[in-house]
Amino acid sequence: MIGSADGVRISITGLGCHVPERVVTNDELSTMMDTSDEWIRERTGIRERRVAAPEEALSDLCLPAARQALEEAGIDGTQIDLIIVATVTPDMAFPSTGAILADQLGAANAAAYDLSAGCTGFMYAVAQGYGMVAAGLARRALVIGGDVLSRILDWSDRSTAVLFGDGAGAVVIERVSEGGFLGFELGADGSGGSQLFVPAGGSREPASAETVAERRHYVQMNGREVFKFATRVLVSSAENVLAECGKTVDDVDVYIPHQANVRIIDHAAEKLGIPKEKIVVNVDRYGNTSSGSIPLALADAQADGRLQDGALVLMTGMGAGLTWGSGLIEWTANGRTQ
Ligand code: ACO
User: Fold this and answer.
1) Left (φ > 0), alpha (ψ -120 to 50) or beta: where does 337 sit?
2) Given a cut of 60, is residue 335 above it in pLDDT?
3) Which residue, 12, 162, 171, 295, is the most exposed by fewest CB within 10 angstroms?
4) What is the pLDDT at residue 333?
């Protein structure tokens, strides 16, 4: 799916993020499994990640992020018409984390639900929020991306446990007078589904003593295949959305790729020809936070002053599905809502 904005100006007017307090370093992991700080840093660029406390669920990470985004947009929960939570680790199968958050935020007028597209979830949800606002179904959408992947990791499997972390980010999307989204490209290749999946816990393999004993409720991944897929789609999806919007790589001011692995990011940036100073990287501090990755990186870019008014920001996610998604936005500073 690909398309560009047709003169409709819709942008991000509020941004927030939240990560758990607990920091888990590579050295700490090396006391739990056969790994080392050196291996993890060299192969992934990750130094540490955040891990949720036992009592912390996804909505506990999303709520502060959402409140911050609403505050920055200068609105409260009653002014939100739509809440989408992109995640693969909701609080529970149902009700949705979106509905739980709607209640906590006092968003009594909002439609609220969860969306599952692996680590690409945030980009899918932003495109969906954009579409709902563009169609006039929603005046303001709150789009949240977050995951508590620590809950579905096999902590005895060094090939996956070292890669991920917990975190969430949120944005408010609404009509603006200047700037805004230029276009999106989203895709899915279900034939690669078994490269990155959680086999049990759904309707195909419901939870049982056997699935628990076989550790089939945890993330299983073919790292090399996912690596190849990720480097390929980060490049093709970015090129596609830029061409669709009549832009080139040279026009991009800020590049926000999904934060899975520094080697994947460097490879994509080099192929695309994006210089280092334009790339936002925080995988070193957070690991791969799945749906939280891109909004957390957006918040970092805002904090370090790179999200200037009018800056062209390219975001690309990829993940389980296998899925991918890019969005191009001309950043809109606050105070220019319609
Ligand atoms: N510590 C020490 N050694 C390890 C570890 C570890 N944590 N994990 C694997 N190894 C070992 C392997 O067992 C292997 O040993 P062997 O040669 O004796 O068999 C060796 O290190 C090399 O393993 P490779 O898998 O070849 O290592 P590679 O360089 O491919 O890196 C990695 C592995 C980091 C997983 C890489 O393939 C990768 O990043 N893949 C993409 C993963 C990813 O990003 N997934 C999520 C993206 S989508 C989403 O976000 C949901």
Assistant:
1) beta
2) no
3) 162
4) 80
